[in-house]
Amino acid sequence: MKFILLGAPGAGKGTQAQFLTKQFNIPQISTGDMLRAAIKAGTELGKQAKAAIDAGQLVTDEIIIGMVKERIAQEDCANGFLLDGFPRTVPQADAVAEAGVEIDAVIEIDVPDEEIVKRMSGRRCHMPSGRTYHTVYNPPKEEDKDDETGEDLIQREDDKPEVVKDRLDVYHEQTAPLISYYTDVAAKNPALKYIKVDGTQPIDAVESAIIESLK
Ligand code: AP5
Ligand code: ZN
């Protein structure tokens, strides 16, 4: 299966990805996680991406498209994958289509901006694995804290309230047009399912809604 998870920053893409990748036994391809790993490793790509990410802006399409193409050509993607945070612009979506990648479902997680701001302030991340928690809505369990790396949970730089506002603006300008882009594709092509779920429900209710819609 090949899935795209679409939604505003903090809508719960990473949270639902953890569960969907287990359920379908496919890798999660989070462009945000890949960029953060590149920044941490101090690569050329990381250096180029850092300024954009810290400012809540997008990294260029060229860099992102190249990075994803390379990733999906790897062996573990042969049976499918879940794209989290990609595509995020119309040119990125066009690149998916032009590469002949046949997506089975686009899953939109819908959450209003007011709720997003609350979520971001409480988010904590485990950087090596990409696992995401929330101080109130999804606190880490004992077994999560004591994992193989022992690395602490941290707050992301771009979760500061002023950056969150910019990220939401960028989402509405550049990513939200993908909602009509993919509903149009789905209307013409029955092989692609467009699923919209209410992301304000509790985490397990969002999971169930996705699974139910995929049946
Ligand atoms: P990226 O890492 O993709 O960030 P994002 O899209 O802004 O999304 P987030 O990771 O912030 O949120 P999420 O939807 O995964 O929510 P989560 O599950 O963590 O990208 C970061 C940056 O990289 C971008 O700003 C850009 O600069 C660059 N970039 C990445 N991809 C790019 C691309 N394709 N093109 C160009 N640039 C790119 O949940 C959030 C919080 O809410 C958590 O604390 C969680 O526990 C909690 N939560 C989740 N679900 C629920 C629920 N149902 N109820 C209550 N709480 C919940
Ligand atoms: Zn994420």
Automatic annotation (TrEMBL):
Catalyzes the reversible transfer of the terminal phosphate group between ATP and AMP. Plays an important role in cellular energy homeostasis and in adenine nucleotide metabolism. Keywords: ATP-binding, Cytoplasm, Kinase, Nucleotide biosynthesis, Nucleotide-binding, Transferase. ATP binds at residues 10-15, 123, 132-133, 201. It comes from Thiomicrorhabdus lithotrophica. This is Adenylate kinase. Monomer. CDD domains: ADK (cd01428). It catalyses: AMP + ATP = 2 ADP. Pathway: Purine metabolism; AMP biosynthesis via salvage pathway; AMP from ADP: step 1/1. Its EC number is 2.7.4.3. Consists of three domains, a large central CORE domain and two small peripheral domains, NMPbind and LID, which undergo movements during catalysis. The LID domain closes over the site of phosphoryl transfer upon ATP binding. Assembling and dissambling the active center during each catalytic cycle provides an effective means to prevent ATP hydrolysis. Residues 123-158 form the Adenylate kinase active site lid domain. The gene is adk. Residues 30-59 are annotated as: NMP. Residues 122-159 are annotated as: LID. Belongs to the adenylate kinase family. It is found in: Cytoplasm.
